Amino acid sequence: MTKNETATIEKQAAPILSGSSETHEFPDWFRDQQRAAWKQFESLPNPTRKDQAWRFANVGLLDLGPFEYGGTLTEKERATILEQSRGLEEVAGRMIFAGDELIERDVISDQLKKRGVIFQSLERAMVEHADLFRKHFMSQPAKLGSAKFAALHQALVSSGTFLYVPRGVEIELPIEIFHWLTGENTSAFPHLLLVTDELAKVTVIEHFRSVNEHAPGFACGVNDLVAGPGAKVTYVCAQNWADNVIALQMNSTMVDHDASAMSLNLHLGSRYSRFESLSRLIGEGGRSDLLAVAVAKNQQEFDARTLQDHVSPHTASDLLYKNALDDRARTIFGGLIRVEPHAHFTDAYQKVRNLLLSDDAEANSMPGLEILADNVRCTHGATSGQIDEDELFYLRTRGIPVPVAQRLIVTGFLDEVVQRLDHPAISEHLHRLIEKKFAKNRD
Amino acid sequence: MKELNIEKLHIAVGDQEIVRGLTLRVPRGEVHALMGPNGSGKSTLAKVLAGHPDYHVTAGKILMDGEDLLELDPDERARRGLFLAFQYPSEIPGVTIANFLRAALQSRLPEGEELEATDYYAKLYEKMELLGMDRSFTSRAVNEGFSGGEKKRTEILQMAVLEPQYAVLDETDSGLDIDALKTVAHGVNSLRGPDLGILLITHYQRLLNYIIPDYVHVMVAGRIVRSGRKELALELEERGYDWARDGATEPAYR
């Protein structure tokens, strides 16, 4: 990236990074990390299509020049956002961020607090729970291509969610987090640090949204998800940024022994959205389910890169990504299953299915395997196809007109993934978001 | 005239003519069985009635209550009261039976009118009971992982919910054991009445022990070679299709 390209973000970030700004009061060690990260961001080269990790990607869209850093909300904006932050009916706790500012927090119940659950902002956690924070915050290097953007995130992250669930505590209702981009050319650096201890259970859903549905913007988020021994972690993301947003998200999941982690990422919004998902199975008996659904329309590009990293024996991972592509939309999947030398008795699956609704849409799939252990079961595969004519005819013979029949088939295709969650309320919410996107594009 | 009227119909797939001048009338209130050996064109006829895009009608016409069916798209035909129970129903992954049938009923309502959910489910459950189907079926994806019997039962369930004026049942008995056959036949019989005309396509006489037809037609090589009362099916069972073919002079109707 040339100096010119990042002028706005750099100009506005510089005083904060040098410590002369009073905007955020972070501990010195955190400030030092941020300054180092900024240097790293500046020194790392821009991605190019020649990098395997960026193959097929439209890297030209990653011009950060127009985007601003920071900014404040008006009272009216704040009221609008609070009004529009509607997600699930019942939640155990909720945080709403607008332009990286925490504007509302529905605290968790006293009962959960008494049992040791910590649900607070990132900046408080780095002071009050510095040890936990420092142990897990961005502890996994960004391996899937976006080291530069992970560094940018680390340099500029100013808030986020810290959630700690102690040993044996099961939170039945989901925790809900909203991140809003507020105006033209604003930026956001969302962060979720989720740590579960032994046998804990939690579900988190994040909503990424824009106040103005056409405003350009930039989002660069990182999530650290830690499933302790025997823990059960479900993470859901409903990405619905405005259609001119450039977004990068880098998630890592650590799965300890006998733990299970399930993630489901729904991609609906943005102009270009890159999503990197690293799942490390570091303890025997661990299991990770990686699910994603994308509805790509118009000029949208969804770029998913994944690594299922089997470090320990007797671990399982199952990836299922489904994309529905219309118009001139593009999707990219680059995924690797890696089984480390002593990770015997691994079960690893990877399946990508693309449904092409237009001749101009383009789905690129690069599944991959790297098996260094014996005695493993791995399968991977990617398929692309169109709506099945027999299915369409069948629906039509029941009186269903073609556009409705097509929509039923496509949402059914995607619902197969959504239904894998064992939270009917979340599945229903995601289903409605998918239907809404189809309805919107009919106009 | 309240009838399904097929007149001198010719159907081709590519260069090959499969149905060759078929004439058949199914008035409302009657059950007509269409029997024939494999390859006689029975299923082709069923698909053409429903409007399958791969088959071409080269001559003849099909009228439903006087209206030219061939002018209508498959979904329009269905909305005007035609139903086809498929021999091999498609699986629709991820689409539940409840959502599927809701969409089908919704499509029959005027624009802007919403299907009433409570009434819908009451009706759906009532028809499922008729066919001995568990309510949990409604949340399963259409035909996905269904046994042969479940698929056929689901076809009849759809017919019961959609209440057509004319129903074409294509080999609904194939692949069913005797218990499943009885259940399906019971479902069809309970739907019989003065407002429904049924064309029952089958290879075997067995089904006709449970759904007693008013008339039986024998189709060989794309044409109807014999027509008669229900006893014709028994005679055919005894003498075989060769007899029907050899004895045929002109296609007869009634």
Q: What is the CATH architecture descriptor of chain B?
A: 3-Layer(aba) Sandwich
Q: Major sheet of chain B: order of its strands?
A: 6-9-10-3-11-12
**Helix coverage percent of residues of chain A?**
25-40%
Amino- and carboxy-terminal Cα gap of chain B: 18 Å
Please give the alpha-carbon distance between the first and last residues of chain A: 38 Å
Tally of contiguous helical segments of chain A: 10
Number of strands of chain A: 20
Which percent band covers the strand fraction of chain A?
35-45%
Q: Helical proportion of chain B? A: 25-40%
Q: What is the count of β-strands of chain B? A: 12
Structural classification of chain A: alpha/beta
Low-confidence stretches of chain B: 250-254
Q: Profile the largest sheet of chain A.
A: 10 strands, mixed
Going across the biggest sheet of chain A, name each strand in turn: 2-1-5-8-10-12-14-16-18-20
**What coarse outline of chain A follows from CA principal-axis ratios?**
globular
Oligomer: heterodimer
- Radius of gyration of chain A (Å): 21 Å
The CATH top-level class label of chain B: Alpha Beta
The average pLDDT value of chain A, as a whole number, equals: 93
List the domain count of chain B as a whole number: 1
**Average pLDDT metric of chain B:** 92
Task: Tell me about this structure.
The complex is a heterodimer of chains A (443) and B (254). Chain A has helices at 7-18, 28-43, 75-84, 110-114, 122-128, 130-136, 147-156, 389-396, 402-418, 424-442; strands at residues 93-98, 101-106, 118-121, 161-165, 175-181, 186-188, 191-196, 201-210, 217-227, 232-240, 245-255, 260-267, 272-281, 287-296, 301-310, 316-325, 330-339, 347-356, 362-371, 377-385. Chain A is an alpha/beta fold. Chain A folds into 2 domains: 7-283, no CATH class; 387-443, no CATH class. In chain A, the strands form 2 sheets. Chain A has a 10-stranded mixed beta sheet with strand order 2-1-5-8-10-12-14-16-18-20, covered by helices on one side. In chain A, strands 3, 4, 6, 7, 9, 11, 13, 15, 17 and 19 form a 10-stranded mixed beta sheet that branches. In chain A, a hairpin with a 2-residue loop joins β1 (93-98) and β2 (101-106). Chain A is globular and about 65 Å long. The two termini of chain A are 38 Å apart. With 254 residues, chain B is an alpha/beta fold. Chain B has one domain (3-247): Rossmann fold, CATH 3.40.50.300. Helix content of chain B is 33%, strand content 29%. Chain B has 7 helices and 12 strands. In chain B, strands 6-9-10-3-11-12 form a 6-stranded mixed beta sheet, with helices on both faces. Chain B has a 4-stranded antiparallel beta sheet with strand order 2-1-4-5, covered by helices on one side. In chain B, β4 and β5 form a beta hairpin. Chain A binds chain B through residues 388-391, 393-402, 404-405, 408-409, 411-416, 419, and chain B through 50-53, 73-75, 77-79, 83-84, 86, 89-95, 99-101, 103-104, 107-108, 141, 158, 162.
